[in-house]
Amino acid sequence: YTNESTGAYAAKLDGSGHSDLIHATGAAALDGKLVVSSIDPYIQWSKTYTLLQSGGLGGTFATFDTTGLAPSSYWTPTLHYGASDLTMTFVSTGKTYATVATGLTPAGAAAAAALFAAHDNATEPMKSLLGEIDALDASSPTDMAELGQGLNQLAPDASDAGFAFAENAALLFSGELGDRIGALQSSAAAAQGRTRLALSGN
C-alpha cells in the first residue's frame, strides 16, 4: 500500500468504537493526507482505533485532518506510528464536564463527574445526550452556563441522599436520574446554529 504525497486516506469512526481499516499484506509507504471523521456525534474516547495494518510501515502522513471529527474540548486525537500499524487514540486535555461547566451545584458537579466517568460505557439515549454535551464549546461562557444549568437539573434533588455518584456511576442509567436524562432534550441555537441543551420536565 502506498499513499502518495497527493493522495488522501479518509477513515471514519463510529460511536461503537469501530473505524475503517486498511490491511496491507505487504509494506506500506505513507505520505500525503490522513482525513479522520466521525459518523456519530458520540465517540468512545478510551478506544484505540487501528487505521492501518501492514507487513512493515514506512513514512508518515504529511497532514492529519480531523475537522470531520465530532468536536471535543476534552480529548485530542493523536496518531501512533508502529513498526507495522498505525493507530489513533484520544489524549486527555485535562478538562472534564465538571471543570468547564459554570454555576454547578454540589449535586450538579457530582452528576458531571459521574457522566464523564461513565462516558465510554454509554448506550442510547445516553449516547445522544453525551454527544450533545461533547459538542458544546468549552470556551463559550453561554454554552458552559447552559451546561451547568442542565447538569444541575439532571442531578437528583439534594435531599436524595441515596444517590452516591462517585461510588457507582451505574446509577446514571436507571432510577430517578434515568428519568431526568429522558427529560433532557436538544434543540438548535436559533442565532448561531450551535447544539444547545433545552430542558423540560422536572
SS-based structural class?
A: alpha/beta
Overall outline: elongated
What is the number of strand segments?
Answer: 11
Q: What's the end-to-end separation, in Å?
A: 56 Å
Q: What is the N-to-C order of secondary-structure elements (H for helix, E for strand)?
A: EEEEEEEEEHHHHHEE
Strand order of the largest sheet: 2-5-9-8
Mean pLDDT over the full residue set: 80
Q: Indicate the multimeric state.
A: single chain
**Radius of gyration based on Cα positions:** 20 Å
Which range does the strand content fall in? 25-35%
Helix content: 10-25%
Low-confidence regions: 158-178, 184-202
Count helical runs. 5
Major sheet, described briefly? 4 strands, mixed
Description:
The protein is an alpha/beta fold. It has 5 helices and 11 strands. The protein has helices spanning 97-100, 106-117, 126-135, 141-154, 175-182; strands at 8-13, 22-23, 27-30, 33-38, 49-53, 56-59, 63-68, 75-81, 85-92, 184-188, 195-199. The strands form 4 sheets. Strands 2-5-9-8 form a 4-stranded mixed sheet, with no helix packed on it. A 3-stranded parallel sheet has the order 1-4-7, with no helix packed on it. It is elongated, with a radius of gyration of 20 Å. Residues 158-178 and 184-202 have low confidence and may be disordered.
Question: How do the helices and strands line up, and which of them pair or pack?
Answer:
Blueprint: E1 8-13, E2 22-23, E3 27-30, E4 33-38, E5 49-53, E6 56-59, E7 63-68, E8 75-81, E9 85-92, H1 97-100, H2 106-117, H3 126-135, H4 141-154, H5 175-182, E10 184-188, E11 195-199
